[in-house]
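FIELD: query
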Amino acid sequence: MSKTISPFLPFWHTLSRTGFYAPLLALYIIGLPVLSLSRALLSLWQYQHFDNIAYLEIFAYGLRADLVMLGLLSLIPLLLSPVFVILRAWRPWQRFTYGWLIASVVFIIFMEAITPGFIAEYSTRPNRLLIEYLKYPKEVLPMLWKGFKVQLLISLLALYATFSIMRRSARAWLLQSNLLKQRYYWLLLPMLFLLCVFSIRSTLGHRPVNPAFFAITNDALVNDLIINSSYSALYAAYNLKHESHTSEIYGKMSTEEMLTAFGSTRELLHDKRTLLHNKKLPTLVHQTPTHHYQKPLNIVIILEESLGATFVESLGGKPVTPELEKLKQQGWWFENLYATGTRSVRGIEAVVAGFPPTPAESVVKLSLSQDHFTTLASLLSAKGYDTHFIYGGESHFDNMRSFFMGNGFKHVTEEKDFVHPSFVGSWGVSDEDLFNRAHQEISQQHATGKPFFTLIFSSSNHSPFEFPDGRIKPYEQPKATDNNAVKYADYALGKFFDKAKASDYYKDTLFLVVADHDIRVRGDSLIPITNFHIPGLILGADIQAKAIKTVASQIDLPTTLLSLAGLDVTTPMFGRDISAEDDAAPGRAMMQYYDNYAWMEGHELVILRPEQPPTYAHVNEQAQTLSVNGPPANATAITNRALASALLPTWLYQQQGYQSDLGLQSLHVIK
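FIELD: result
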C-alpha cells in the first residue's frame, strides 16, 4: 500500500501546511484545471458557435462559474469542521474529507464526461432533462444502452478511472499526522468561510450570481458552455421546486375538456384571429393586423416598477402622476386593466410573453422556458427587428437576462453599462439615467433604418425609495416614501417623452407604458382587487386618444401592440387583440394571488382555491371592491372557463407548447 501512495506524499505534505483544510484546497487545485480544460475542449468542438465572441471573456466568466461550484462543494465540510475540532476528532475528519473530496471530484469529472453526448443530443449541458430522466431508470437505461452505447461506456470508464485515481492518490491524506494541535489554523475559519461565501456569490452586488448572470451572448449553447455541467445540473434540480406547485390544485380537466373551454373563451371574447388547430401548439393563431403601414412600427415598452392604479388620480388613486395624466390624453388609456400577479416576473411574463399566471414560479425563472419560448422579442426578431432590454439594475436578477437572451433579445444594457450615472441607489441607476440611455440607444437604432423593439424596465419606485434630490416637490415627508418615489418616476417618464416627441423616431414608434404590478399587494380579501388594478397607455405614431373601458389583462397588451404596429404574425399568445374587438365583446382578466386564482368576466369574478369549491363575487367597478355572491346563472360555464384558463398555462409549459415555430420534432419531452 505504501508503494501505491508514495508518489503523492510530497503533494499532501505540502498541502498539510494548510492544516485540516488541505482537502478543500485540493478540491480547488484539481477542480479548476479540470473544468477549464473541459470548457476549452468543448469550445473547440463547438467552434462554429463562437463567431465574433471574445474567448477571453468566455473563460473569465467560466472561471467565476467554476469558483461558484467549488464554493458550493466546499461549504458543507467547512461548516462542519468546527464540530470535528471541538470533539478533537482528527481521524473522523480525515475520513470524512477523504470521502468528500473523492465524491466531489468524481461528480465534477463524470458530469463533464457526459456533457459531449448531452450536447450532441440536446445542444445544451446537462440540465433539467437529466433530472427528469433520472426519474425513469427503467425506460432510460435501455434507451441509453441502445442509442448511446459509446457515450455511456466512455462516461462509465471516466467514472471508474476518476474514482480509482482519486481513491489511491487521496489515501496519502489519511497518513497525515494530527494537525489539530496547530491552533492558528483554527483562526483561519472565519476568513475561509467568508472567502467561500464570496466564491458562491461571486459579486459584491445586491444579488448573487445565477446562470442568468453568465448569459452574455445570444447563443444559448455558448452561454451553457460558460458554466460547468455540475452547476447546470444542480441549479436545475434546485429550480424544480419552483415547478412543484401546479394549477391542478384547483381541479382537473382532460386535455379535450380544457381545450373545449378555451374555445368557449375565444367565442366569449369574439376572437376573430384564425386558430390553426395544431395539436402540439393548441393556442397557435394567425393574427392579421388592424393597422397597416408601408413599414411596420417600432415598439417600445416601458415597464414601470410598482405603479398601481392606487397612484393614479384618474383611476381613483393619489395625485402623484401628473405627467402620466397628461400623456393619457394622447393615446389609448386603459381604464380597467389588471395585473396578472404581484411580482415583476409576473408582469414580465404577461407583458413580454403574453403568458398567463400559474401557482408555480413565473416562466421567466423556470427551466423549460429558457429558450424556444415565445416572446415579443422572438416574434419581432424573426421579422428583422433589433431587440434590446434596458434596465438600471442587475439584469440577472430574477433570471431576466437568461430568459431574455434565450428568447429573442439580442442586446442587454444594465447597471454596469452606464457611464458616470447621475444617481445610483440600491436597485440601480435612477430612472432619469435609465431614460437618458434609452433615448440615446433608440435614437441610434432609428438612425440605422432597421426596425427595433426595446423593453425599458424602471426601478426607482422600489423600497427603499431612493431618488435624486431637487427634481420634484415631495408629496409628503419624509422623502423616502412610495408616493414620492412614484412622483419622481413619473417626472422622469415625462422628461423622456418630452425628448421622444421632439425626436425623429417618435412618428415611427409605438409606445406602451404599463405597470408590472402594484406595490405591497396584501389584504384579507381572497383577491385584493384594488391592488391588481394598474394603468396602461399606448401612444406614439398616429395613435389617436381613446379610453379603453373593457376589462383587460396584461396578457392582452403584446397581441394588441403587434396589431397596432402593423405586423402579421403567427403566435401562440392567446391574449386579445383589443384593436380588433367590437363594442359587444366582454372583457376578462386573470389574477394570481398566492394560491388563489381569480377569473374575471366583466363584473363577475370566480375565485379558485386549493381543495375548495369556487367562490363567486361581483366587482364594484367604481369602488374596486368585491361583494361575495352565490353562484350566478352561468356558473358552470364561467367556472369551466376559469379552471381551463388556470390549467392551460401549466399544460403549455410542461408540453413545451408555447412556441411560434413548428420545429417541435427536435425537442425531447418526457411524457
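FIELD: remark
The chain has two domains: 2-242, 247-564+586-666.
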